[in-house]
Each structure stands twice: as structure tokens, then as C-alpha cells.
Design goal:
- This protein is α+β, with helices and mostly antiparallel strands.
- It contains seven helices and twelve strands.
- Helix 1 crosses helix 2, helix 5 crosses helix 6 and helix 6 crosses helix 7.
- The longest helix has 27 residues.
- The protein is globular, with a radius of gyration of 19 Å.
Length: 237
């Protein structure tokens, strides 16, 4: 759907909210009545490029569902360097600390794109809704388990793989979650800078530049500022 459907942000009807929520994987099995109830709790918020949505230590008063744009979840290293823990794409939940019994935000969420739209639902209301809907609670627990496995795989990648392998893993993961098949090739459209990729993969911007240029010289990828085309994802090395 994207930004075009929701440009009239202040006038988004309940039915439009319901339709969007039905396309979120976590909610796809809910009845129309349940989706209406959930949509009635959702408030739309808009963020500009590089705007902070919440910071470490904030009260986790809301749960967010991304409608449009890209969000990065970040923290700071001891030297003050930004570390990207995860990248959030549309139709994903984030900011769920309160549901895990944390009393404050453990990370910072920051917009990457200029037109970021989110649903914000009161954490207390969402938690109460989960208590009333066991099917949704089960799916929510499974979602947390999937995220935990992903974080474990990222940790192993940082420990056991070299910089080139981590950058290639990043490309493959993004192709699978956010790519579009173009013939035999895979196109990734993104808003990340090479510094963002470095912050996500635990490398330097210079290393990212070198690896991407090397892959381009080998005709394994072609890239521009906001897109990367992978020639053959199965043989990308």
C-alpha cells in the first residue's frame, strides 16, 4: 500500500486502519470485529527524516506498528559510536519493552526516511487486548521467539564471521525480507547509508565501501545510492 494510501494522515478512516492491520502478519488471523477493536486503539503518528521516536530511558507507554518508511533501533557503544541493533520495515511491531515487563526503553528508535508513518497503541491497552485474545498472544510469543533466534544468529555472525561475510549476510537478509525478484536477480530498495550498513554489521564505512565495490567489480552486485541489485543471491560470496 505505502505512503500514497495514507497521505491524508489526519483523516484515515477506521476501515482503512482495519484493512492495514489485517495485512500485518501478527494480526492476519483476527476476525474483522477484533481488527476493528484494535484499529480503534491505534493513533497515527508521522515522523520526519532522522527524527527520534523514543530514547533509552523513556517510559514505554506505546507499542508501534510501522506503516511506511524505515526505522532503525539503535544504542551507543562505550566510545559513543552508533550501533544498529535491528532495522524495522513496514508491517512490523517495535517498541514492545512494556510487554516484556521492562519499565523503560532499552533502545532508541530513529526514523531513516522522511515520510515515516506509524500506528501507536497504548502499551497498557495492547497488553489488555492480548489477555483477552489467547490466539493473538500465542502468535505474539512466537514472534518474540523468532526475533530471539534472529538476534542469536546476528551475535554468532559478529563473533565468528569476518567483515566481508557479515556484509554479505546483511545483503542476503535484506534481499529475503525486503527484496523484489527481477528476473533471476534480486533488487533491494533502501534508505540506508554505507555508514548505517557499517553500524549494523560491526564494520567501518571504509570496509563497507571496499566490499561493495569489490562485489561490483566481480559483477555480483550493482548498486546506486538507494538500491542494490544482486545478480545471483545463491552464489553471492
Amino acid at each position: 500500500m505505502g505512503i500514497r494510501i495514507y497521505t491524508r494522515i489526519g483523516k484515515m478512516e477506521l476501515n482503512a486502519k482495519t484493512q492495514y492491520l489485517s495485512e500485518v502478519k501478527l494480526f492476519e488471523d483476527l476476525t474483522h470485529e477484533d481488527l476493528l477493536d484494535l484499529a480503534s486503539l491505534a493513533v497515527i503518528r508521522k515522523y520526519t527524516k532522522h527524527q527520534i521516536i523514543y530514547r533509552v530511558g523513556d517510559d514505554p507507554e506505546d507499542v508501534f506498528i510501522l506503516i511506511n518508511g524505515i526505522i532503525k533501533i539503535i544504542s551507543k557503544s562505550g566510545e559513543g559510536r552508533e550501533v544498529i541493533k535491528t532495522i524495522i520495515h513496514p508491517k512490523a511491531l517495535f517498541g514492545i519493552e512494556y510487554l516484556s515487563s521492562q519499565n523503560m526503553r532499552s533502545n532508541t528508535a530513529k526514523s531513516i526516511d522522511k515520510d515515516v508513518l506509524c500506528f501507536a497503541i497504548s502499551s497498557k491497552d495492547f497488553k489488555a487486548y492480548l489477555k483477552e485474545n489467547w490466539t493473538l498472544t500465542e502468535k505474539f510469543i512466537k514472534m518474540l521467539g523468532t526475533r530471539l533466534i534472529y538476534l542469536e544468529e546476528r551475535f554468532e555472525s559478529l563473533v565468528f564471521k569476518d567483515a566481508r561475510e557479515r556484509i554479505i549476510d546483511f545483503l542476503k537478509d535484506n534481499a529475503k525480507t525486503n527484496g523484489r525478484q527481477v528476473g533471476l536477480e534480486m533488487l533491494i530498495k533502501h534508505s540506508l547509508t554505507q555508514q548505517d550498513i557499517a553500524n549494523f554489521t560491526g564494520t567501518s564505512r571504509q570496509t563497507v565501501t571496499y566490499v561493495l565495490n569489490d562485489l561490483k567489480r566481480q559483477n555480483q552486485i550493482y548498486f546506486k545510492r538507494k538500491s542494490i541489485l544482486i545478480r545471483d543471491i545463491e552464489n553471492l560470496v
